[in-house]
């Protein structure tokens, strides 16, 4: 039996990505065309976790600006010219395949950020996953009113988090 591994996502993976998203995020749905846009705008940051019988997870990341959370289930239209972080939009893995999958994805994305000259990763923790992200080096950011407003569409336990990448 082959070990699950991350590979770059392809357009043909979109149905599988949407199926995993529907299982993992029933309370935070995103349209398939919104997810497809992320694949198109920044394919280097989009990965799928492959297992013997298909895809068991995905990770989507793209260049962005710190403290400026992208809207949930809405189009980005374009990426910022002067991005100062790589925004981890989502990491979703089916329960039977978790054990280290998020860590492996973050390691790959961290390397991508460094090779792109980006010195931080950012994300919004949902569903009480803050402890997981803290174990992976992310720290919560105190939210001002504007940040709280942006976080509201992500649910009540949403926390904006940053991970500075050491040189």
Key traits:
167 residues, alpha+beta, 5 helices, 7 strands
Characterize the structure shown.
- The chain is an alpha+beta fold.
- The protein has five helices and seven strands.
- It has helices spanning 14-24, 32-41, 101-115, 130-135, 145-151, and strands spanning 5-8, 47-51, 54-64, 85-93, 120-125, 139-140, 159-164.
- It has a seven-stranded mixed beta sheet with strand order 1-2-3-4-5-7-6, sandwiched between helices.
- The radius of gyration is 15 Å and the shape is globular.
Number of helices: 5
Number of DSSP strand runs: 7
Mean pLDDT: 93
SSE run: EHHEEEHEHEHE
Q: Which descriptor suits the 3D outline? A: globular
Question: Level of helix content?
Answer: 25-40%
Q: What structural class do the secondary elements suggest?
A: alpha+beta
**How much of the polypeptide forms β-strand, as a percent range?**
25-35%
- What radius of gyration results from the CA coordinates? 15 Å
Rounded to the nearest angstrom, the distance between the terminal CA atoms is: 38 Å
Lateral strand order in the biggest sheet: 1-2-3-4-5-7-6
Which consecutive residue ranges, at least 5 long each, have pLDDT under 50? none
Largest sheet: number of strands, sense, barrel closure: 7 strands, mixed
């Amino acid at each position: 039996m082959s070990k699950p591994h991350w590979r770059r996502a392809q357009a043909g993976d979109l149905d599988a990505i949407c199926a995993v998203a529907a299982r993992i995020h029933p309370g935070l749905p995103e349209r398939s065309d919104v997810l497809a846009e992320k694949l198109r705008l920044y394919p280097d940051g989009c990965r799928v976790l492959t297992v013997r019988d298909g895809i068991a997870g995905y990770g989507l990341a793209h260049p962005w600006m710190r403290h400026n959370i992208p809207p949930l289930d809405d189009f980005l239209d374009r990426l910022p010219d002067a991005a100062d972080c790589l925004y981890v939009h989502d990491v979703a893995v089916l329960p039977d395949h978790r054990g280290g999958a998020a860590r492996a994805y973050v390691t790959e994305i961290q390397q991508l950020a460094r090779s792109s000259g980006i010195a931080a990763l950012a994300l919004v923790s949902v569903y009480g996953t803050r402890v997981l992200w803290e174990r992976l080096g992310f720290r919560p950011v105190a939210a001002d009113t504007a940040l709280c407003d942006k976080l509201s569409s992500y649910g009540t336990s949403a926390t904006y988090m940053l991970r500075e990448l050491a040189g």
